[in-house]
């Protein structure tokens, strides 16, 4: 049977803005308080997704979340009409209002961890929404994420949905941004790599000093248990705490894998050689470990350009390609490295560049914008077909963005009751376009 890897990209929501909410994420911090362009952001994302579909990849879209999040604002004590809630939050707690307005669900690499049926004991695809507890603005995502995933992957014969992990720092879980799967072919059992930033329950274990380690080993192990994986198809790797302190807040800022390729920076991990040996011993195929040395690309250049927040995809021809942000073209060291990489003896033969700057300015590159789901033809037929990218969906969504999105937004605009009305009108229409049912609180 045919099997492949599908990418589900997050559709950028109408409140996309730069509020500087993510401590430890250098781009979020550096661009705080700038004006954003939600319309351009959504279109940049749609263009990348459509281009992958045109390359012959299976491409889906995941709906954004309801923002401003009135449910959370009411839960923390703001009362009255919706407009009054926004006004008093803006006056009394503007930073909490900002957190309740982030469009951060666009980075679907953080939506959930997915294990394909080839790896799991019950032979179903498993989904665990990430609890994202390290950041307030992201910790309000998992319940709706679960609903959107369930309405996209609804058939219980193929899809097994779990709840998010307990909402405590010991179980900090950031989803697929810290998870990579290696395999010979997508439909064959592979090895799932869980990369964590710290061991929460072991005070003597190494951890970063300056910035938070958002993923814990405890969370990674819990997800592996829930997904019915076992020792022979999992490897747990610690991220190098020193690079977290230099702005590598997720593993997908410093490493990316696809099939038998692991593309990573020399300084990405702790105990690198032993972990690579463990991967190779558990994998039933020869791997290509492509290590990028510091003397070619510094951590600073990797963080600025997002060289590793690229998608490594297998094209229908069997060749691999890298989907990179244009920021990689603009960085001389990184551009030189990529030009050299495609001439080497590795499966990666092409690089395609995409302008996703609106997302990049908040620390999200091409890989942050997508959630990977390896699946076979039967499983794909069970997916909500209205979420799959094609000419029709592309043009419908572009028109929908043109109709509802602003081309300029600052944090001052977040309390505007009109923005709430525009967002809800847009999302209500979107649930009809994508046939999602009532996934939003305002629809329930
Ligand atoms: N995988 C990429 C995630 C980027 C995301 N940025 C943000 O949330 C920035 C939002 C802001 O600062 O307004 C994060 O850090 O979790």
TrEMBL record:
Pathway: Amino-acid degradation; L-arginine degradation via AST pathway; L-glutamate and succinate from L-arginine: step 2/5. Its EC number is 3.5.3.23. One of its GO terms (biological process) is L-arginine catabolic process to succinate. It catalyses: N(2)-succinyl-L-arginine + 2 H2O + 2 H(+) = N(2)-succinyl-L-ornithine + 2 NH4(+) + CO2. The active site is at residues 174, 250, 368. Substrate binds at residues 19-28, 110, 137-138, 214, 252, 362. Keywords: Arginine metabolism, Hydrolase. SUPFAM superfamilies: Pentein (SSF55909). The keyword Nucleotide-binding does not apply. The keyword Hydrolase applies. Catalyzes the hydrolysis of N(2)-succinylarginine into N(2)-succinylornithine, ammonia and CO(2). Belongs to the succinylarginine dihydrolase family. Homodimer. NCBIfam families: arg_catab_astB (TIGR03241), PRK13281.1 (NF009789). This is N-succinylarginine dihydrolase. The lineage of its organism: Bacteria, Pseudomonadati, Pseudomonadota, Gammaproteobacteria, Alteromonadales. The gene is astB.
């Amino acid at each position: 049977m045919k099997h492949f890897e599908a990418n589900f990209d997050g559709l950028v929501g109408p409140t996309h803005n730069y509020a500087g909410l993510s401590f430890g994420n250098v781009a979020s911090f550096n661009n705080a308080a700038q004006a954003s362009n939600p319309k351009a952001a959504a279109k940049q994302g749609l263009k990348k997704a459509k281009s992958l579909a045109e390359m012959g990849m299976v491409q889906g879209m995941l709906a954004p979340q309801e923002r401003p999040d009135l449910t959370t604002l009411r839960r923390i004590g703001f009362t009255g009409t919706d407009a009054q809630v926004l006004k008093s939050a803006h006056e009394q707690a503007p930073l909490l209002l900002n957190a309740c307005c982030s469009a951060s669900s666009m980075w679907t690499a953080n939506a959930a961890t997915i294990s394909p049926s080839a790896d799991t004991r019950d032979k179903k695809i498993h989904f665990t929404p990430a609890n994202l507890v390290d950041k307030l603005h992201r910790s309000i995502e998992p319940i709706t994420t679960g609903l959107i995933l369930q309405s996209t992957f609804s058939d219980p014969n193929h899809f097994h949905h779990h709840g998010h992990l307990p909402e405590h720092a010991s179980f900090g879980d950031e989803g697929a941004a810290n998870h990579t799967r290696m395999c010979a072919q997508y439909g064959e059992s592979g090895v799932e790599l869980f990369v964590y930033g710290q061991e929460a329950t072991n005070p003597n274990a190494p951890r970063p000093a300056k910035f938070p380690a958002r993923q814990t080993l405890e969370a990674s192990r819990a997800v592996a248990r829930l997904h019915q994986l076992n020792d022979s198809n999992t490897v747990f790797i610690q991220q190098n705490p020193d690079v977290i302190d230099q702005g590598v807040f997720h593993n997908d800022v410093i490493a990316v894998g696809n099939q038998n390729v692991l593309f990573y920076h020399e300084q990405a991990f702790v105990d690198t050689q032993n972990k690579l040996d463990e991967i190779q011993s558990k994998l039933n195929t020869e791997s290509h470990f492509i290590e990028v040395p510091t003397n070619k690309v510094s951590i600073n250049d990797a963080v600025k350009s997002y060289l590793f927040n690229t998608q490594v995809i297998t094209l229908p021809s069997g060749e691999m390609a890298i989907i990179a942000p244009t920021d990689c073209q603009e960085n001389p060291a990184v551009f030189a490295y990529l030009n050299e990489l495609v001439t080497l003896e590795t499966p990666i033969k092409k690089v395609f560049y995409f302008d996703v700057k609106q997302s990049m300015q908040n620390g999200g590159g091409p890989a942050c914008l997508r959630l990977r789901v390896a699946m076979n033809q039967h499983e794909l037929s069970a997916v909500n077909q209205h979420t799959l990218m094609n000419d029709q969906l592309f043009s419908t969504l572009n028109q929908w963005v043109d109709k509802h999105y602003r081309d300029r937004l600052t944090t001052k605009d977040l309390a505007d009751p009109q923005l709430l009305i525009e967002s809800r009108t847009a999302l209500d229409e979107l649930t009809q376009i994508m046939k999602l049912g009532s996934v939003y609180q305002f629809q329930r």
